[in-house]
Amino acid sequence: MSPCCTNHTNLIFAQCLPPELQLLDHGLVYGWNQTMVDCPVCSGKVHPDNFTTKSWALLHHAGFVSYPHHDSDGAMTFIQIKTGIKFWVVFRPKHALSRTSLQKAQMLFANFTRNQEEILLTWDTEVITLLDGDMLFQPAGQVHAVYTPKKMFVTGGHFYNFGSLHLTEISRYIDAHKAQFLTNQVHDNALETFQRMTIALPRPSASFELRHRALVGLCLMVINRDKYKASNNDQGYTIIASESTGRAVSIATAIISHFYKDMTTAQRSYRSGNQSDPVRLERTT
Fold first, then answer.
1. Model pTM above 0.70
2. CA distance 68 to 194
3. CA-CA distance, 252 to 88, in Å (whole number)?
4. What is the pLDDT of residues 161-188, one digit of tens each?
5. Which residue in 117, 124, 133, 185 has a CA-CA distance of 20 to 30 Å to 40?
């Protein structure tokens, strides 16, 4: 089942997060803003989606439907209704699921009609009514569907936050296996932002709180970068190293080595327990 049906227009729109909320975009605030001096882009090659996905606008006709899906590349999403109405349907598993069980549970949406009974047993559902001026923030990997009962105009964007990178990681893990069924677009830009967020890790003050699973999730995405290519990308692209790759991999490897004896142990620990729990990072001396 395609994630969307009927006509709509997707526009690039020069309005990011509201000023009072812009510090939530750690990919930009820490990843890009704090690494460009000592890790400049000498090649001049930066994927435009690193910045264009931060701000967009949508024009929808009445009757537009987006079937259950999650947004690509594990990004957090914000939207604001400028005019019109949207019914935003969010799905949450009734019980904590392992990463493989979560992937199987999401695959139920690939055929909603056939799997309706099992979906009702697996997922809780809530409908959020968004009216003029309402703003919604959506976590990374959140399964959602959308119905537009009247023509509307909405602005929004995508961003990354250190506190939710474990959700980003599992969303990209699922995309690497089943993206053609579960997400709506393909973006090839995220790795460079993750690498720069990793390089920025030594910079935040001691008051900046990091969560263990979220931190390890970031490190795994940087170290095992080839394992997170979305399966619905049919362009056969190859991940190539950039100016930030070597330094980011070194930092990520050092972090994993600090907490675990090897990568196998790190991945086994990371993938156990409640996958949605960021887990407080225990500081060592």
1. yes
2. 27
3. 37
4. 999 999 999 999 988 887 677 776 666 6
5. 185
